[in-house]
């Protein structure tokens, strides 16, 4: 039987997919800010609808893939360590809980302190917590460059928070707290994936993402009902188009593009490209939402994002992590970036700290 092999994804197209995904992720907070005003929903309910909507849009991809596998020669056996159903359920619950904290706290931060500050603090603190967690939990070597980058990120965060909280209303401490909680959930999700990859576990990135969304939707439903599950406005035109956009573009479409692009793009390159997300969020915050950024806020943001970029480079050079291909096998290990698990492709030669929501 003749097998047709599809050509590899061109690097240029892979880069464009990752870039579009990062820009799309950067619009999620702006969509949430608009929906807070038009729908009357709170952060928990809005996160529930985003998670449930993304789940409904991504789930058919599993069915489509299963149908293709049945038509073809079948899936090749991965070289990763097989897991029992109980262990897989535990993994899904742990990742889903981390994802729930990450996304809900992020929307809470956007609601409390604004889009620009919430996004920068979340995405700036996340890689720092990942680097520190990897050092403490998995004994990963941070290195001198990584340590300096972490110190720079902490300095930028301090300038952003302390300099902005001067009565101008730009930075709200409660919102910063939510953003740090979001970064904690993000880093926990990422460190779990690193640990599993180091243990030799084979993880289906699409299936793991969908299962995490399912867990998140179940966990969020009771709290969303208590907060107010249904939009206050009876006019569907006020909120439905933006709700559909939130579930479709920065959730389902962005993750799909990112999974596809990572086949051809190195992890370190993708991590740097993903820094376009907080830039996108900041531009939307100022241009569309009318948020005012003080000079101190801009300075703290610049220092923080520069340090994060340096941290990405430092980790890629040190080779921290486990994203190498298994010798002699077709298994792809999994990393998490931007709130979603993604496969590590053949182009990845080192692990790197993820940068995204």
TrEMBL record:
<feature type="transmembrane region" description="Helical">
    <location>
        <begin position="15"/>
        <end position="36"/>
    </location>
</feature>
<feature type="transmembrane region" description="Helical">
    <location>
        <begin position="146"/>
        <end position="165"/>
    </location>
</feature>
<dbReference type="Pfam" id="PF00892">
    <property type="entry name" value="EamA"/>
</dbReference>
<feature type="transmembrane region" description="Helical">
    <location>
        <begin position="295"/>
        <end position="314"/>
    </location>
</feature>
<feature type="transmembrane region" description="Helical">
    <location>
        <begin position="115"/>
        <end position="134"/>
    </location>
</feature>
<feature type="transmembrane region" description="Helical">
    <location>
        <begin position="244"/>
        <end position="265"/>
    </location>
</feature>
<dbReference type="InterPro" id="IPR000620">
    <property type="entry name" value="EamA_dom"/>
</dbReference>
<keyword id="KW-0812">Transmembrane</keyword>
<keyword id="KW-0472">Membrane</keyword>
<comment type="similarity">
    <text>Belongs to the EamA transporter family.</text>
</comment>
<feature type="transmembrane region" description="Helical">
    <location>
        <begin position="48"/>
        <end position="66"/>
    </location>
</feature>
<feature type="transmembrane region" description="Helical">
    <location>
        <begin position="272"/>
        <end position="289"/>
    </location>
</feature>
<feature type="transmembrane region" description="Helical">
    <location>
        <begin position="171"/>
        <end position="191"/>
    </location>
</feature>
<protein>
    <submittedName>
        <fullName>EamA family transporter</fullName>
    </submittedName>
</protein>
<feature type="domain" description="EamA">
    <location>
        <begin position="13"/>
        <end position="161"/>
    </location>
</feature>
<feature type="domain" description="EamA">
    <location>
        <begin position="174"/>
        <end position="311"/>
    </location>
</feature>
<dbReference type="InterPro" id="IPR037185">
    <property type="entry name" value="EmrE-like"/>
</dbReference>
<keyword id="KW-1133">Transmembrane helix</keyword>
<dbReference type="GO" id="GO:0016020">
    <property type="term" value="C:membrane"/>
</dbReference>
<feature type="transmembrane region" description="Helical">
    <location>
        <begin position="203"/>
        <end position="224"/>
    </location>
</feature>
<dbReference type="InterPro" id="IPR050638">
    <property type="entry name" value="AA-Vitamin_Transporters"/>
</dbReference>
<feature type="transmembrane region" description="Helical">
    <location>
        <begin position="87"/>
        <end position="109"/>
    </location>
</feature>
């Amino acid at each position: 039987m003749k097998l047709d092999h599809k050509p590899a994804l061109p690097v240029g197209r892979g880069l464009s997919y990752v870039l579009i995904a990062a820009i799309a992720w950067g619009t999620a907070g702006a969509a949430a800010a608009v929906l807070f005003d038009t729908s009357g929903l709170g952060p928990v309910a809005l996160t529930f609808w985003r998670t449930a909507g993304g789940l409904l849009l991504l789930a058919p991809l599993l069915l489509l893939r299963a149908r293709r596998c049945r038509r073809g020669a079948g899936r090749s056996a991965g070289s990763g360590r097989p897991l029992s159903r109980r262990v897989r359920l535990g993994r899904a619950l742990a990742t889903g809980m981390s994802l729930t904290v990450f996304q809900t706290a992020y929307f809470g931060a956007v609601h409390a302190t604004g889009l620009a500050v919430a996004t920068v603090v979340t995405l700036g603190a996340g890689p720092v917590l990942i680097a520190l967690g990897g050092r403490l939990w998995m004994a990963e070597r941070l290195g001198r460059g990584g340590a300096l980058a972490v110190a720079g990120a902490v300095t930028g965060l301090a300038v952003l928070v302390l300099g902005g909280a001067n009565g101008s209303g730009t930075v709200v401490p409660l919102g910063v707290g939510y953003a740090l909680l979001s970064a904690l959930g993000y880093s926990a999700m990422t460190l779990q994936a690193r640990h599993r990859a180091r243990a030799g576990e084979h993880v289906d990135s699409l299936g793991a993402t969908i299962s995490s969304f399912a867990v998140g939707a179940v966990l969020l439903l009771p709290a969303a009902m208590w907060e107010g599950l249904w939009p206050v406005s009876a006019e569907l035109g006020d909120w439905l188009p933006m709700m559909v956009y939130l579930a479709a573009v920065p959730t389902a479409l962005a993750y799909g593009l990112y999974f596809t692009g990572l086949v051809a793009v190195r992890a370190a390159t993708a991590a740097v490209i993903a820094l376009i997300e907080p830039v996108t969020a900041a531009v939307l915050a100022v241009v569309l939402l009318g948020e005012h950024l003080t000079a101190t806020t801009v300075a703290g943001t610049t220092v923080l994002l520069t340090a994060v970029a340096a941290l990405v480079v430092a980790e890629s050079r040190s080779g921290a992590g486990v994203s190498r291909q298994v010798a002699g096998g077709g298994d792809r290990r999994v990393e998490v970036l931007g709130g979603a698990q993604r496969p590590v492709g053949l182009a990845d030669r080192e692990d790197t700290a993820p940068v995204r929501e």
